[in-house]
Amino acid sequence: MPIPPRPVVIHCPRCHWQMTFAPHSDCIPAHEAPPEVCPKCGCEGLERRAATGITIMRSGFFIAHQRTAYIQKFRQEVP
Predict the structure, then answer these.
(1) Is 20 exposed, middle or buried (CB count within 10 Å of its CB: 0-12, 13-18, 19+)?
(2) CA-based torsion, 70, 62, 8, 17: positive or negative
(3) Residue 33 — left, alpha, or beta (φ > 0 → left; ψ -120 to 50 → alpha)?
(4) Is the overall model pTM greater than 0.85, yes or no?
(5) Which residues sit opposite 9 in a β-bridge?
(6) pLDDT digits (tens, 9 = 90+) for 3-42
(7) Pick from 26, 28, 25: which is nearest to 70 by CA?
């Protein structure tokens, strides 16, 4: 039985970019995986912390938009 992982907030300490990653399943395809490098400044030291209920509710509207934008960017980079 799949159990979705807990949502996390991924934060860049350099440029303060952040996103809330809330997967729907424990099986995450490569094109939907959270970024390892900041898409804004290229920093490789992204910080992760558990998302709180308020964070999840505030970002609920933006989660789908960020995921779609990240997938589109990934598809443009892959030949």
Answers:
(1) buried
(2) positive
(3) beta
(4) no
(5) 20, 49
(6) 777 888 999 999 999 888 887 777 777 777 888 999 899 9
(7) 28
Q: How many Å is the maximal CA-CA distance in the chain?
A: 39
Distance of CA 50 to the CA centre of its chain: 12
d(CA 50, CA 76): 30
Beta carbons of 75 and 31 less than 8 angstroms apart = yes
Instruction: For 47-75, give one letter per residue: b (16+ CB within 10 A) or e.
Output: eeeebeeebeeebeeeeeebbeebeeeee
